[in-house]
Structures are given as structure tokens and as C-alpha cells.
Amino acid sequence: MKSRRARIQEFHRSTIVIVAIALLAAAVAESETALYSSSRKLAEVSDIDKAYLLPGEVVQQRLRHKCRGIGQFDQLRGEWVRHPDHSYNGMTDPAKCPSFVRDYDCRADYIDQNYHVLQQKEFRKVFQPYACELHSMNTTYFSECLQGQRIIIIGDSTMRQVFQSLACLLTDHVTDGYLVDWQDAKPNQTAVPFKDEYFVRGTRSPILKQNVGMFRLKNGVQVHFQSFGIFNLTLWDDVMTKFMPLSKNDTIFVEFGAWYPRFSASEMHAPWARYKKDVLELLDMRLRAYSANVLWRGYGPTHFGGATGTFTGMNWELEALPAQETCEPAQYGEYYYDTEVIKYLTKCGEFCAHIHILPVFHLSLPMHNSHHGSFGRGIEESAIDCRHYCANVVDTWNQVLYNKLCYQPTGKGKLLKLQTTGRY
């Protein structure tokens, strides 16, 4: 007869399968009915979801060329391979990063030897797309490519990681900068005082204002950053006051999603319904009308267990299982955050040609061992962090950004207008 623990584990596995199937069915069905009414349009929406889950076509090594002209919706499917240099340990050295960069360091000196071995294994990997070969990061050219541009990064704490990674990658070209908690920001650093309150849609829950940052390059390029986990249109407008007027020389780099779980034990479907409304409002009422280029960063999939990486609990009546001690692989990942944006942009057409997806979802999906939680963050508090990635993954996001902005037929720093399929 099976033990109670064995029965619970069996229930756990069965629940994961059921949740995964329900997620896939619900995501497609909800998206179809929400955006389109005709059967033809329904089929198109369904195809977007299905296409996002299909494996990429593998191109023979001898035919692979340098990536160039990554299009509006292009995805970078590929694999992580070992770097030929045995001493390779990632693109950045945390000891050489600007002083204001203070992200969790997966390369810290560990008491647990297993973490050290895992770190060496994970940071030895480099991402290799199937269709083309990414240009290696050349920070001097990156700095030149951004000449005359202003980068405005807005989003949740995963975008803070993007900001810090950029500063580390460009450290030889950074003249000055800062990253502070919003409550410590000076009046000239943000247009929004910390004491001002903004609320989550449909609630009286105040939105947490997180960080404010900026760094400047030797050639005058400025990279700005402000983070708040949940979108609010009034808060967005107040934050953007500092950056007005916008021009074609501005690039807004944005993403929200970490604070919008697809299913929530306390709120069930409410956060996901809120996400769809918030993102539609941001895209439809602001981003499509801006003269600036817009990059929507692809979603960074979580790895909390289950087919989509979101399984974090089970029936409240059952005795609690041991806390999760490692980040687990996910078969599908939370693809629906990206496809929700793509469906809107597809419908919007040429009016949204200046809004592109930065394709980082597929490259992040297999990297469950490169989360902060994979190196112990949150385990002691039974709140393992399988959302934030280590520098090896976030630096690769910015390598894709470098390829996206600096290797376009339209010129340095310019996005491809009206191009929905890239040339690679």
C-alpha cells in the first residue's frame, strides 16, 4: 500500500498535468474570444499561440550566418552550447561593474561546493540560435551604435536586471550613474515623489514603486530606468513627464508581467485578467502613439514547476509538501504573455510598426538552473526565487538587444519599420 507521502507526490504529478492542459486550453480559448469574432480570425489567433510553442528549424552549422535584421515578431529559438574556452565565465565580471550595480551574484563564493560546480557549468554556456549566429558583444561598437539615442527602461524588477546588466556590459564607457530605491530618489531623478499613491486596477492596493536609475556614456548617451511592478496609466504618464517630448531618437524598453500570475491562490484569475487590460491600455493608449521606438522585452519564463513553470502549490486541505529547493524545468513556459502582445500588434498593423518584441523567451526557457533560486536565494524562507535570472542569462538578453539595435539594414539604433518577418 502506498505511503501518504507517495500518494501526495502522485497527486502532485497528476495535478501538474491537469494544470498544464488547462493552461493551454484556457490560454487559447480566452485569447480567441477576447480579440476576434469571426472564425477566420479565431484561427489566426490560435495559430499565433501554436506557432509560439513549435520547435525552431535547425540550420546546419556551415549555413549559419550572422544575425541581421531581426524582425518585429521574430523569435530566436536555439540551444545553449559550451564555450570553447574552459576559463569562460560569462560576459561580465561583477568585480569590474559600476559601483551602483548590486544585483544578486550567482558567482559569489559559496560554502556549498555544489553551487560552485553548477555556476561553472551554467556560466560556461553561450546561446546559439538555430537560424543565425549572434554577433558577439563589442561594447565599443555598441556605444557607437547608440550615439544620439536615449534609452528609457521601464518595468518590473526583471527590467532592473536589464538596466544593471547593460551598465556592467558597457562599464568601460560609463562616466557616471546611480541606482537608488525610489524612496531615496532626489527630485531631479524622478518626476514622481515616493509618497504619491497609485493603485492596482480595480482595487485600493497601492502599487509598489521600486527603483530609479540612470547612467551616462562617454559619448553622451543616457540610459534611464524606473521600476514599478504593476502598470497604472496615471503613474506611467507621471513617470514619462521627465522624458517628454519624445522623438525618433528615443527607444522605450518596457516589460510587465512578473506581478501578474496566470493563476493565483488568493485571487484566482484576477491578475491575468488585469494583465490583459493593463497591457492593452498601455499599448493602445500610449505606445502606439509615441514617436519613439518601442521594444517590448519578451517574457522571462519562471521555473516553479509544472508544464508552464507556474505550479507553486496544491490543495489547501492537504498537508504542506516540503518547500521547493531547486528551480524545475518547464516544457512550455508562460508563452501567453508574449502572444497576448503579439496578437495586439498584429491587429494594430502599420500603426504599431515601431513597436517590436525583443525575443528572449525561448532562449530563457531551458535555463532553469540559472535562476537566483538555483543558487539558494529564498530557500531558507521557503520562497525560492525561480523568477529572476543570473547574469549569464540577462547578459544574453542584452546581447540580443545589441543585435537587434545595431545590426539592422535601416541603420544603427533604428528598428525595422513594417517588417514582421526578419531576414536574419
TrEMBL record:
Tell me which InterPro entries the record gives.
Answer: TBL, TBL_C
Trichome birefringence-like C-terminal domain: which residues? 136-403
Care to name a GO molecular-function term for this sequence?
A: O-acetyltransferase activity
Which superkingdom does the taxonomy of this entry point to?
Eukaryota
Q: Which family does the UniProt entry place this protein in?
A: Belongs to the PC-esterase family. TBL subfamily.
Q: What is this protein called?
A: Trichome birefringence-like C-terminal domain-containing protein
- Say which species the protein is native to: Coccomyxa viridis
What does the record give as the organism's lineage? Answer: Eukaryota, Viridiplantae, Chlorophyta, core chlorophytes, Trebouxiophyceae
